[in-house]
Amino acid sequence: MARLITKTTEKTDGKLKEPEVYRVVLLNDHYTTMDFVVEVLMVIFHKSIEDANRIMLDVHRRGKGVVGVYAWDIAATKAEQVHAAARENEFPLRCIVEPV
After folding, report:
1. Does residue 62 sit within a domain?
2. Domain-embedded: residue 8
3. What range defines the domain where residue 68 resides?
4. How far is CA 10 from CA 3, 7, 16, in A?
5. What is the pLDDT of residues 4-51, one digit of tens each?
């Protein structure tokens, strides 16, 4: 019985590439209540009450605020959760996902 011998010629450096990360940014509007923004930050992004209030004030004062940095699928999912919660509560709250 003959044996098959194969050689591999592909070289790899053995290093894994880190996944690309994206910022989730909340955008200010003049209709969404501050309490709702704080609730979204605590429920969807698991922020403490202190962090949620700080981020909410950044959004209010600067027009936008970074909520977190995640891999693409997590960032996109969290952005969709924000939009769904805002629609359900009839607020125009928006957020964007941008590369770091």
Report:
1. yes
2. no
3. 21-99
4. 22, 9, 16
5. 766 666 666 678 888 899 999 999 999 999 999 999 999 999 999 999
